[in-house]
Each structure stands twice: as C-alpha cells, then as structure tokens.
Amino acid sequence: MSEKILSHFFNGKSIGKSLKEMSVDLITTEREDVVSRWYHAPSTDLFTWTDRGHNIIKQQLHFNGQVVEWNCLEGIKTGLVIEADLGLKPTYNAEGKMEKDRVSQSIKFDANPMYNCVELALEILENVDFEMPVRLQLVDNFRNPQYITNMDPQLFLDRFGIALAGARKPGETVLSRFKKLLK
After folding, report:
1. What is the pTM of this model?
2. What is the pairing mode between strands 44-50 and 66-71?
3. Tell me, what's the pLDDT at 9?
4. Residues 6 or more apart from 62 whose CB is under 8 A from it?
C-alpha cells in the first residue's frame, strides 16, 4: 500500500474532511417523522437519525471495519462489521455482466466500548465540514454520551420527547416507543 493511502486510512482529520452527504431520507410513521442521513468517504460511512426537533437520536460511524454508535437509549457502543458470503450463485444483469457478490453485513458489538475506536471517531467528527450545531452535537454524543439511564428524566423528555409527540397506544411505554423508532 502506498504511503498516501495508509496516511489517509488512519487519519481522522483527512477522513472527516472528505465525508460528503450521499442521501437524505424521511422515515414517516403514523406518529413520528425521522430524518435519516448518510455521509460517505473512502472506507468510512456516517449515518444519523434526527427527530422533528433536529435532535440526533442515533448516530453510527463505520471506518476501516470498526463501528462506533451512540443512541439515546443505550449510549455509546463500539463493534466490528462482520461480512458473510451468502453463498448464492452469481447473478448477471441485462448486459450479461456479473453483479456484485452478495454479502450480508452485521455488527458484532463489544462488551465495553473500545477507547481507541471512540478517539478516532471523535477525530473524524471534529473535522467534518458540517454546520457547527450538527458537528457539535455529533461530537458531544461521543465525548459526553448521555442517554436514558444517565439523564434526568425531565431533561430526557425535554430533549428527545418530540419524537414521542402524539397519542400513545394503550399500554405503550416511552421506552417501547423509542425502541421501535431506533430499529
């Protein structure tokens, strides 16, 4: 591998500066609207989900096979992307060219967050070319992870309660609504 490729591969500053928005989707249910965004750079993907109040309720950064995730229910987690060949026969498109291999990806989360992964994720996010409030929220979610079990209940509802606006089904709890929203 050339020095230039290696220097970019583990350089959070250059990775952060090269992240570009690829897709924005509105996920609508009968009670919630969530905006999902995907940003991409070589060997790196950032996914965010925001509620109607523009609060990030979940963020997931993939880089070099590593994953760092924060969400408002579980806090911060790190893990590894696992790829498995589905063992399917190759398929061909209309021009007779073979399609990409079919691979399934899953994430195996660590028992405890890995400090070095979080540090590199922070370096990446500190250098993204996003609007300041968004960048600060992304960084703060990894640097000072707050979530349902370590936040004052009123503060949690003030910050994330807009995602729960609307009538709840009988017997439905705040926690069960958020779990459905974050899946």
Report:
1. 0.73
2. unpaired
3. 56
4. 44, 45, 46, 47, 81
